[in-house]
Protein: Multiple sugar transport system substrate-binding protein
Amino acid sequence: MLKSISRTLLGAAFVGGAFMPHAFAETSINALFMAQAAYSEADVRAMTEAFSKANPDIKVNLEFVPYEGLHDKTVLAQGSGGYDVVLFDVIWPAEYASNNVLVDVSARITEEMKKGVLPGAWTTVTYDGKSYGMPWILDTKYLFYNKEILEKAGIKSPPKTWDELAEQAKIIKDKGLLATPISWSWSQAEAAICDYTTLVSAYGGDFIKDGKPAFQSGGGLDALNYMVTSYSSGLTNPNSKEFLEEDVRKVFQNGEAAFALNWTYMYNMANDPKDSKVAGKVGVVPAPGVAGKSEVSAVNGSMGLGITTASKHPEEAWKFITFMTSQQTQNQYAKLSLPIWASSYDDPEVTKGQEELIAAAKLGLAAMYPRPTTPKYQELSTALQQAIQESLLGQAKPEDALKSAAENSGL
Structure:
């Protein structure tokens, strides 16, 4: 009898003179995020702590992996039911939907969400007319430039076209201000595909047409030719072929690059005098266009939060996702990643101190170009990464490298 009473007390609370069963019942959910510089691990933990205070009956166990491990960790955990909530890249919904990795949450999305979130953000989580989560990180790559170096070179305004970028870099190099004025993320990784996609969008190229690869000619070929010319001309930092985004940020912050293509997060980090030698000298504009083809260029680098089909606690998982993607949470961390909510861009608390970035974002986010939507994305990306590397290293001509990539793309 005593044992029975004590067991009851463990799951009950004494409220208003009566026992209330399960007042302290707690549901645990597991969430997988990536270790990154925008919303850092500390930021995600702080957001989760705020969620836990508002929802004491839900415990969230967080796990962080590098971006490169996020996809495989998600897929491999499906059998064991390891995660309830996962962060996913814009390139994965097609594969995840086809392989039943994520829950279709279309019915959970309210009218307020539909109207309030920027239209471009929804493309992050949508495949075949269904939504597989909520957009969380809304991002594209921008052209960052060092205002002081451009001024010293006598350059009045940042480039509006990719050809102008090369011309300005040459002026800077010829004046002896920097040996290699441009930095890119061209390591054999997804980062290189993001830079390549930005250029494909500028040149009006296609990745896939009628279900077949189309990048081996037209804008796809023009984009890779531009990369190779920039690299072989000596205007691009030769280490770009090994750089990821964080390497680019560090080079730019040290004052060793006049131009750099990178994500939103670099703006406030490069302007932080504690860590950056170029604080106060950072300019940002949308990535340039191509004369006669585009005004600006941009890649969709956004990410979403979804519920796995293996989750045993989808209600609690959705509650966590809606908190993390809420306008209140996003506005609070807007210096790290710009909000998905349209009205946030008219909020002085969001725009203050980053007016230049917001101005660039209004153009860049509207021009976001998707990487190819296909369940075979991983194979296609791997083939393109190899083609870019071979071309940069002079091991193959761009047209031959892209032809091989098309053959190995799985399409």
Q: What stands out?
A: Confidence is low (pLDDT under 50) at residues 1-23.
